[in-house]
Amino acid sequence: MCSGAATSREHVPPRCLFPELRDLPLGFDFRKNLISVPSCDLHNSEKAKDDEYLMFLLSTALQGNRFKQQHFETKVMRALRRKPAAYGAFMPNLTPVAIQEGNGPMVETCAFEVDVERFSRCMRHIACGVLYHHTSLKPLNEVRVVTDAFAALKGPNAEETNRLFHDMTLRIGEALSLVPIQGANRPIFQYRLHTTAEGVHAVLMIFYEGIRVAAIINDA
Length: 220
Prior knowledge:
By secondary structure, the chain is α+β, with helices and mostly antiparallel strands. The chain has one domain (8-218). It contains six helices and eight strands, in the order E-E-H-H-H-H-E-E-H-E-H-E-E-E. The strands form three sheets. Strands 5-8-7-6 form a four-stranded antiparallel β-sheet, sandwiched between helices. A hairpin with a 4-residue loop joins strand 6 and strand 7 (200-207). Helix 2 (48-59) crosses helix 3 (66-82).
């Protein structure tokens, strides 16, 4: 991510997204063969709080598998009890809501405002780490992040905004559908990486088998 000297290694995605062995059923281990890339001390230490925010954000999403839910009920809840003020700050404007997924029943839950720029920064780091892991390239230009993991609940254009991001994420997924899935711990993190002849890199990242985030890196 920078031109500084590499003094350590950073996991991609952050290691905290992968459940600890003690929090998993017998026979499961999702902390093996994790991707790591060179990192400088400054950026490695600076992003520690962002990693914690990302872990909380993904674990509270509606999408995802049983391992995501278990991760929330174990590691994330331990962290929340240990640092209630810090984790409370992750949930500004917490509001009860009722939502419907597809044709299913209405579900009572809560919503809070997401720091979209912080989330996008986390995803840019992961996408660039994946790209570097495979190509040793450092992106020179802007990295655009698209996801349908969040929803706008109010505002004059909320419905159109949600549809737009859903369609964009879906189209990127369809465009990469023939690209092989990669990832050693796919119930937690899997991805597809494709580079066009024009030098555009597309990374489709899937967390907990349900949370989709696409990153477009243009090095052309």
